[in-house]
Write a structure and sequence with these properties.
This protein is of the alpha+beta class and 277 residues long. The protein has five helices and 17 strands. Helices cover 18% and strands 30% of the residues. The longest helix has 16 residues.
């Protein structure tokens, strides 16, 4: 987090460590990889031939957990890429201490084991060996446990169990998170279907950034932004997908909208044509 505050938005670390491979420290490896997948750059690299900290050398549990969070990171690439554009525009890093987003909350000033990943995800890595639980601070507003869907009120500390296969991640209420299909490498195939994970709360919006991903044309303002908006009232939820704006023409997307809702009617508006459901 200090790197981000110092103006270095993209940095990395060797998941599992660079040297001193040990097949007996599976817990450390699993927790390190969970944290690594929610770092600005995810890198698996190390010495100590012939293992190089490859996940399958740590057993099936470690391998399954690595797959889980590597898959999640690939799915989050549209969200990550948009946040990286924010770094380019404003120097606001993808991974940042909570005080940057909640400067009026003094409780965030000294938090060193939880951080924001983009505008909507709060990540709380488990860093204590053998930990069965850990305390998390929630800033103002409402938060949702990414794994369970539990809603948590802000401005409080709360303790949670920490099973080894779960990285504690919490979603800020109102979030709109674009996700792509699972791929084995970046741009393995065109992203024709985008899933929008929506956590409705009052009025909220999100602008997804896209460019060609290959050239420097973004420096010539050849890019596009697509705005999504969510409006939740006591008895109705309205979600709007606007037409992409900008000099870049992205692939035509089909949107799969997944929302955490409780007994309300919902209306989808795509390019300002309403669909009542």
């Amino acid at each position: 987090m200090s790197m981000g505050l110092s103006g270095v938005g993209n940095w990395t670390h060797c998941m599992g460590g660079f040297e001193q491979y040990s097949p007996y420290d599976t817990e450390l490896y699993i927790r390190w990889c969970q944290f690594g997948m929610f770092s600005p750059i995810a890198m698996l690299f190390g010495m100590d031939h012939p293992h190089y900290h490859e996940p399958w050398t740590y057993g099936e549990i470690a391998l399954d957990n690595f797959r889980k969070y590597a898959s999640l990171r690939y799915a989050l690439l549209p969200y990550i890429y948009t946040a990286e554009r924010g770094l380019y525009d404003s120097a606001k890093p993808l991974m940042k201490p909570l005080v940057m987003d909640f400067p009026d909350d003094e409780n965030t000033y000294n938090l060193t084991r939880q951080y924001m990943f983009g505008p909507s995800l709060m990540v709380c890595p488990v860093t204590t060996k053998g930990a069965l639980s850990q305390s998390v601070y929630f800033p103002g507003g409402e938060w949702i446990d990414y794994e369970t869907g539990e809603r948590i009120s802000g401005r409080q500390y709360k303790s949670f169990l920490t099973p080894l296969d779960i990285l504690p991640v919490y979603v800020k209420a109102g979030a709109i998170i674009p996700m792509q299909p699972l791929m084995q490498w970046v741009d393995q195939y065109p992203t024709d279907v985008l899933t929008l994970d929506v956590y409705p709360s009052g009025n909220s919006s999100y602008e997804m950034y896209e460019d060609d991903g290959e050239t420097m044309d973004y420096e010539k303002n050849i890019f596009a932004r697509t705005r999504f908006a969510s409006q939740l009232t006591a008895d109705k939820w309205t979600f709007t997908v606007a037409k992409p704006e900008g000099l870049y023409h992205p692939n035509v997307h089909t949107y799969l909208i997944k929302a955490l809702l409780y007994k309300v009617r919902y209306i989808f508006t795509i390019n300002y044509i309403s669909l009542l459901a």
